[in-house]
Amino acid sequence: AYRVIRENLPALPPAEKQHLEQLARSLTAPYRAVIRAKTILLLADNYTISAVARLVGRQRRIVRKWAQRFLKKRLEGLKDAPRSGRPPRFSPPDRCASAQAGLRTA
Fold first, then answer.
1. How far is CA 79 from the centre of its chain?
2. Residue 25: closest CA among 37, 42, 9
3. Are 78 and 70 spatial neighbours (Cβ–Cβ below 8 Å)?
4. In whole angstroms, what is the distance from residue 49 CA to residue 64 CA?
5. How many whole angstroms separate alpha carbon 7 and alpha carbon 41?
6. In whole angstroms, what is the distance from residue 90 CA to residue 14 CA?
7. At residue 47, what are phi and psi to the nearest 5 degrees?
8. Can you give the pLDDT of all 106 residues of the chain as single tens digits?
């Protein structure tokens, strides 16, 4: 009932399709990466943006955003973009070390 022929997203090359399918089935990948992979796979299978939005539980504008980013940058477009704001004061290892030091003194 959800399928409608679309021509916005061309057929995926086998290597890209395999990578996206692997990511979509992953139990250890970040959830947002899994949803993005499923989004692209459904769009490549000729589902409409509205249908994909319902199936993955996202708004149409979000599905459209990831489709456009994928078309421009392929798999690289599905990664998170850099965030604005002040850079972290401490690196992740420093944060772990300070947290552990706080636990030792308590």
1. 6
2. 37
3. yes
4. 7
5. 14
6. 41
7. -80, 150
8. 445 445 467 788 899 999 999 999 999 988 999 999 999 999 998 899 999 999 999 999 999 999 988 888 888 778 877 778 887 777 767 666 666 666 665 5
